[in-house]
Design a protein that fits this description.
By secondary structure, the protein is an all-alpha fold. Helices cover 71% and strands 0% of the residues. The chain has two domains: 69 residues; 70 residues, Arc Repressor Mutant, subunit A, CATH 1.10.10. The chain starts with a helix and ends with a helix.
């Protein structure tokens, strides 16, 4: 199972955790540990690959929650976008989209981790303020304020470069 699906799970985790590549190996390992532990629960209603991606999605969300919670008291100091459909986009548009995505990842890597994570969770994972607040055990107002500061920091870095 691992040999057959590790590339797909790794690609999914790397894509969802960008630019935090250092977290990918642990997430992939946790996905397969959880899958092996709960293999008896797999009912075959979907493909094994889809089931593993579902586990990966939950593990990525766990990373967001855990890392945001660990920064709860550190109150220091947008959508990344969908993958372009290469077959339907003109070459210039594809190049622009790739440059924007690369620049976005670079800026997110420069930001305080809490800000980058909250932007990714909100726009990349498309979580609502309510879901984010429940996930990290904070108030909706607190999440809104942090998100506003993160957006402002992102905009400042975007304009500066």
């Amino acid at each position: 199972m691992v040999a057959a699906y590790i590339d797909a799970v790794y690609a999914y985790a790397r894509h969802r955790l960008a630019p935090r590549a250092e977290l990918v190996d642990d997430v992939v390992q946790n996905v397969f540990l959880a899958a092996l532990t709960d293999l008896a629960a797999f009912q075959g209603q979907s493909s094994l690959g889809a089931w593993l991606r579902g586990i990966a999605r939950h593990k990525v969300e766990d990373v967001y929650r855990q890392r945001l919670r660990s920064h709860e008291t550190d109150d220091g100091i947008d959508s990344i976008g969908q993958e372009p459909a290469a077959q339907t986009m003109p070459a210039d548009d594809l190049l622009d989209a790739t440059r924007s995505r690369t620049r976005t990842q670079q800026i997110l890597a420069q930001m305080p981790e809490r800000y980058g994570l909250i932007l990714l969770w909100r726009y990349w994972e498309e979580r609502s303020i309510r879901e984010m607040a429940a996930g990290i055990g904070a108030t909706e107002k607190s999440v809104e304020r942090t998100l506003a500061r993160a957006r402002a920091k992102f905009k400042e870095l975007w304009v500066k470069e």
